[in-house]
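[Discussion] Sanity-checking designs against the backbone

I'm trying to build intuition for which residues belong where. Below is a structure token string of 416 positions. I'd appreciate it if someone posts a full sequence so I can compare it with mine line by line.
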């Protein structure tokens, strides 16, 4: 196929995504008022706890088998390489552009974690359903593409919450809070006035009020003067140390609802007895599978609507962040795809991966998608870099219709 026809094949799914995102932006306008702040919050919760795990479970249970899982061993490694390379390039970018330290984690996260969930799950099946797609039989292409992108989504989500979330946490400024008396509210300890009060007077034993408020690390201590005598700070016991360790590790993020959905989907897919029980019209419990599939189908449009609604914030506050935004676009749409081509074609040359053009196309697609939507959720949970995240999302997703389409065209041309 010539380059123009491949470009038109790649353009259709990108335009579909853009159209839904525009609807989300319109619904979030103040004079429309449908996707308000509270509405987005509740929809985000539903997507996180219901739609995403349902989608991952239904897709993996239907498409993944033990044989295909073994054949796709390179995919998790490929995604991990994308995270490592993206983080390294982002670290170099922060040094060049002199980004404030509290935004280093955001820049690294945006460059490391691509949207490996909704976009591949839209683009690849849509290409397979196209009239002139280059990947052979429509049904075979669609089912294989769904298996590839479902596993991509599951692995990408695990990496995002286990790697990127902790990178963001490391660079999130730790806030310490001080209480002076019963009538005084907690205030930040880095306030110079508060520091002077605490430094010139004696302190009572420090009491740890709460080490975790949602997902934001805080240390609340009480500072009180008694008879001008200094007290020794009380040492926390073993249980408090364990609580601190648990809060720092954030194990519950690794076992997010999406991970449970992925685990159950893989188990159902690779165990023949479970698969016969749930998957297929003749399965005794196919009603359960059908219900979960219906819930999962609402995930992608909901996520894209939220992306469009959140992009409105990016229209404001560009200011002096132009070098940073341009640098991120260069990393995500020039450097990463070029490196990805070298990795995937090198793996194919040394026969580390099979010669299936669709499989190679999905591997290449990992390196060109814009930042993951979950990063926006992480910034809200941690309370840092929310406006900058919206700006980065707006710039990268606005560039996607042209740049992502061009790279998809180049990738199809390379693998055929």
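Best answer:
Here's mine. Compare freely.
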């Amino acid at each position: 196929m010539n380059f123009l026809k491949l470009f038109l094949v790649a353009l259709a799914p990108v335009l579909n995504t853009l159209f839904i995102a525009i609807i989300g932006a319109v619904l979030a306008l103040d004079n429309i008022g449908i996707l308000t702040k509270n509405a987005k919050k509740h929809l985000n919760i539903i997507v996180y706890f219901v739609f995403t795990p349902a989608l991952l479970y239904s897709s993996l249970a239907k498409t993944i088998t033990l044989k295909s899982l073994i054949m796709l061993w390179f995919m998790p490694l490929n995604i991990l390489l994308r995270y490592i390379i993206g983080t390294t390039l982002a670290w170099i970018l922060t040094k060049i552009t002199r980004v404030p330290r509290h935004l280093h984690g955001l820049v690294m996260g945006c460059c490391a974690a691509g949207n490996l969930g909704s976009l591949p799950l839209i683009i690849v099946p849509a290409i397979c359903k196209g009239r002139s797609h280059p990947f052979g039989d429509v049904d075979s292409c669609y089912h294989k593409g769904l298996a590839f992108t479902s596993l991509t989504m599951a692995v990408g989500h695990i990496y995002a919450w286990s790697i990127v979330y902790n990178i963001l946490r490391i660079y999130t400024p730790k806030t310490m809070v001080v209480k002076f008396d019963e009538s005084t509210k907690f205030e930040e300890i880095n306030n110079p006035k508060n520091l002077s009060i605490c430094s010139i007077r004696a302190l009572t034993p420090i009491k740890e009020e709460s080490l975790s408020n949602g997902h934001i690390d805080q240390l609340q201590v009480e500072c009180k003067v008694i008879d001008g005598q200094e007290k020794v700070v009380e040492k926390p016991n073993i249980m408090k140390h364990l609580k601190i360790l648990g809060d720092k590790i954030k194990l519950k993020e690794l076992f997010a609802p999406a991970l449970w959905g992925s685990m159950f989907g893989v188990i159902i897919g690779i165990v023949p007895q479970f698969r016969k029980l749930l998957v297929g019209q003749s399965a005794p419990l196919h009603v359960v599978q059908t219900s979960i599939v219906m819930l999962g189908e609402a995930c992608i449009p909901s996520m894209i609507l939220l992306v469009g609604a959140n992009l409105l914030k990016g229209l404001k506050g560009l200011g002096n962040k132009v070098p940073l935004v341009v640098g991120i676009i260069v990393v995500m749409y020039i450097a990463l795809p070029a490196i990805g081509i070298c990795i995937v074609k090198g793996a194919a040359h040394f026969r580390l991966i099979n010669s299936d053009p669709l499989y190679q196309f999905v591997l290449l697609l990992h390196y060109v998608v814009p930042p993951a939507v979950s990063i926006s959720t992480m910034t809200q949970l941690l309370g840092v870099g929310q406006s900058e995240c919206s700006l980065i999302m707006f710039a990268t997703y606005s560039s996607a219709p042209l740049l992502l389409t061009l790279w998809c065209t180049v990738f199809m041309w390379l693998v055929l």
